Every structure is written in structure tokens, then in C-alpha cells.
């Protein structure tokens, strides 16, 4: 069944977003559903996702991919109250659109496009780079970019270290390696005051809570028992 018609999955995603203070226009939601269908239904580039996860792509993978956007919006609202973490101070102002206008955001090891495609769909004012060395994944993302009309997304078919990307405002990755390894790869390409964000299982990063340079934001996903964490670190 197409995610355009999967009301149960749509409701789970929308409830998750509403609970976190995000309301998306129908056109934006439609693009998220279309991206989900491309990942689940496209077979010529190999198996992009397991059969189990294909049944809950919106509630598991799209919801997870949008956590960085939720976090930035939440911190923006906190800034209005005069309570903003120092490592976000260069990004926040009155509205999310003005926070992110003209920012450059790279996703390391983008795979089939999570989280970078959902983020590019909901934050069109940001220039995104999906960096992935595996040719079949690169071909899929190029096809998906064209079908979805994502003018703010560039697919880079290289390892991140040889991508040539520098002076980035944000770098993200999802379940790539350890936090320490991911941070060391990302740091040279971050501008001063830039931010690194990674999505992990909380159990794998719980020990980082004692590090004053790192912020952990714990969360759960619809119908999932596991606890996850968005881990952020600013580049001083």
C-alpha cells in the first residue's frame, strides 16, 4: 500500500510531530509520503530497507529523521524566552525560516537518504548535501531528488573526507559509527560555531551525558520501546 493511502502510518507520524510542536503543510507531508514510497517500492538499486521496516517507514524512519528539525525549532522557541544553549546561539532568531536561511548542512553516510531527504523536504531554505560513497545508493538518491524536485539538495558520491565540503553550518549522521569517530570525521568541515548532530540509540551514548561539551536529547518514536538520543556538539 502506498504511504499516500496509509492513514494509520500518517496518523502516527502526524501525532508525533504535533506532540513535539510541529505542524507541516499538506504539500510537505505529501512529499514525505512520496519519498517513503520511493524507498520502499524502488527495487532496481537493491534492497534499501528491510521488509519489517518498510511497514513502518513513516513512524520509524521519517519521524526519526525529523528529530533534528524538531530540536532546532524547540531551541528557537526557548531563545525567545532568553534561554538558549551557547552552541546554538549563532543559529537562532525570531523564526525557524530566518534561523536557517542560506545555511549549509551535510549528511555523512546518507545511505538511502535518511535523515537528509526528510530534512530537505521540511527545511527548503537550507542547502543540503547528501554524502554517500556507495554507487547504488547514490543512483537512488539522484533519482529520488529529481522525482521530488528537491532543488536544495545536492547528492555527493564520495566519502565525506574527500567530498571537498568545508565551512558547514551543520553536519549530521544517523547510526553511522561511534559518536567519537563521527565527531572526528565531521569536525574539520564544520565552521567555527557550527553544530554536529547525530541520531543514536540512547544505550550507545548514555556515557556522554557527563561530557559538558555534548548535549543529549532523549526521545521515543511511535510504537517503539527503544529510547533514542539526538546528540549535539558545537564546534568552538
Q: What would your notes on this structure say?
A:
The chain has helices at residues 7-19, 26-41, 51-54, 57-65, 67-80, 96-100, 116-122, 135-148, 179-186, 202-205, and strands spanning 104-108, 127-131, 153-156, 168-174, 190-201, 214-219, 228-234. The protein has 236 residues and is of the alpha/beta class. It is built from ten helices and seven strands. The chain has a single domain (7-234), classed as Vaccinia Virus protein VP39 (Rossmann fold, 3-Layer(aba) Sandwich). Helix 2 runs antiparallel to helix 7 (116-122). The termini are far apart. Strand 1 (104-108), helix 7 (116-122) and strand 2 (127-131) form a beta-alpha-beta unit. Strands 3-2-1-4-5-7-6 form a seven-stranded mixed beta sheet, sandwiched between helices. It is 40% helix and 19% strand. Mean pLDDT is 90; it is low at 79-95.
Examine the secondary-structure arrangement and name the CATH architecture.
3-Layer(aba) Sandwich
Q: Give me the strand/helix succession.
A: HHHHHHEHEHEEHEHEE
- How would you write the strand order of the largest sheet? 3-2-1-4-5-7-6
Number of domains: 1
Number of strands: 7
Count the helices. How many? 10
Largest sheet: 7 strands, mixed
Strand content: 15-25%
> What is the average of the pLDDT values?
90
| Spans where pLDDT lies below 50 across 5 or more residues | 79-95
Report the radius of gyration as a whole number of Å.
17 Å
Structural class by SSE content? alpha/beta
Shape: globular
Query: What is the third-level CATH name, the topology?
Result: Rossmann fold
How much helix, percentage-wise, in residues?
Answer: 25-40%
Task: Output the CATH class name.
Answer: Alpha Beta
CATH homologous superfamily designation = Vaccinia Virus protein VP39
Amino acid at each position: 500500500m502506498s504511504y499516500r493511502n496509509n492513514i494509520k502510518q500518517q496518523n502516527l507520524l502526524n501525532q508525533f510531530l504535533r506532540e513535539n510542536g510541529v505542524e507541516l503543510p499538506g504539500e510537505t507531508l505529501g512529499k514525505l509520503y512520496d519519498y517513503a514510497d520511493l524507498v520502499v517500492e524502488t527495487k532496481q538499486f537493491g534492497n534499501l530497507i528491510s521488509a519489517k521496516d518498510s511497514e513502518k517507514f513513516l513512524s520509524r524512519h521519517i519521524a526519526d529523521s525529523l528529530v533534528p528539525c524538531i530540536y532546532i525549532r524547540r531551541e528557537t522557541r526557548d531563545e525567545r524566552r532568553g534561554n538558549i544553549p551557547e552552541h546554538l546561539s549563532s543559529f537562532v532568531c525570531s523564526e525557524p525560516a530566518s534561523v536557517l536561511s542560506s545555511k549549509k548542512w551535510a549528511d555523512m553516510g546518507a545511505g538511502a537518504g535518511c535523515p537528509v531527504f526528510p530534512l530537505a523536504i521540511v527545511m527548503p531554505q537550507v542547502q543540503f548535501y547528501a554524502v554517500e560513497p556507495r554507487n547504488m545508493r547514490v543512483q537512488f538518491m539522484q533519482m529520488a531528488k529529481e522525482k521530488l524536485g528537491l532543488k536544495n539538495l545536492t547528492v555527493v558520491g564520495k566519502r565525506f573526507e574527500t567530498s571537498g565540503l568545508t565551512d558547514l553550518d551543520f553536519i549530521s549522521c544517523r547510526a553511522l559509527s561511534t559518536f567519537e569517530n563521527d565527531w572526528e570525521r565531521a569536525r574539520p568541515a564544520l565552521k567555527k560555531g557550527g553544530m554536529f548532530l547525530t541520531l543514536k540509540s540512547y544505550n550507545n551514548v548514555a556515557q556522554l551525558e557527563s561530557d559538558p561539551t555534548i548535549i543529549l536529547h532523549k526521545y521515543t518514536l511511535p510504537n517503539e520501546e527503544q529510547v533514542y538520543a539526538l546528540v549535539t556538539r558545537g564546534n568552538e
